[in-house]
Design a protein that fits this description.
By secondary structure, this protein is mainly beta. The chain has one domain (10-155): OB fold (Dihydrolipoamide Acetyltransferase, E2P), CATH 2.40.50. It is built from two helices and eleven strands. It has helices at residues 65-68, 145-155; strands at 10-18, 21-26, 30-35, 49-55, 58-64, 79-85, 88-94, 96-104, 108-110, 123-129, 132-137. Strands 8-1-2-11-10-9 form a six-stranded mixed β-sheet, with no helix packed on it. Strands 3-6-7-5-4 form a five-stranded mixed β-sheet.
Length: 176
């Protein structure tokens, strides 16, 4: 049901479009929004990790959310969101950032209200955005534990020895 807490409590979401579908991220999980830059491909990376981009000297791996969600990925994305993934960040390529929407508590409901529209692995809640019911993506679940570990192994240089520190990191320093 859509009726949690006080009606005057509100929270912000970034609403994005992938193909003809709309999704949202909690603003608290979104550090920054960038214009799409073609990522540099990472060898042996899963197909949905399309590469890395340089963000102020830090390498940010980019996930194409259309590929991750099983949608057709023919069009070029327009934006990349830096979303929190554990103690670091990952880029989420989207077709378009549509809105930063402030929703009151009665506009937010459980994922069960989606009735199987999307794999619940990636979704926290549902958001009423105008006349649409929009799944709120769970940024922490964009990658499985195995995929996160694989990504960490991929970033290590073949010449790097055990115990040596890496020159570059896959995290973005959070702005104060």
């Amino acid at each position: 049901m859509f009726n949690y807490g006080e009606a005057n409590e509100s929270h912000e979401y970034v609403v994005v479009r992938l193909e003809d579908e709309y999704f949202a991220f909690d603003v608290a999980d979104t550090a920054e929004i960038f214009t799409y830059t073609e990522p540099v491909r990472m060898p042996r990376a899963p197909k949905f990790i399309v590469g890395v981009i340089d963000v102020r000297g830090h390498m940010l791996p980019v996930v194409d959310l259309r590929l991750r969600a099983g949608l057709d990925a023919t069009a070029k994305p327009a934006h990349i969101l830096a979303v929190r993934l554990g103690d670091g960040f990952i880029g989420a390529a989207v077709d378009k950032v549509c809105d930063v929407y402030t929703a009151d508590k009665k506009s937010i409901g459980d994922v069960a209200t989606l009735a199987g529209k999307l794999d619940s692995q990636f979704v926290r809640r549902a958001l009423r955005w105008g006349q649409r019911l929009v799944p709120v993506m769970d940024a922490a679940r964009l990658l499985t534990t195995d995929e996160t570990l694989r990504l960490r192994r991929l970033r290590q240089s073949p010449r790097r020895r055990r115990g040596e520190k890496s020159e570059q990191s896959f995290s973005i320093e959070q702005k104060p």
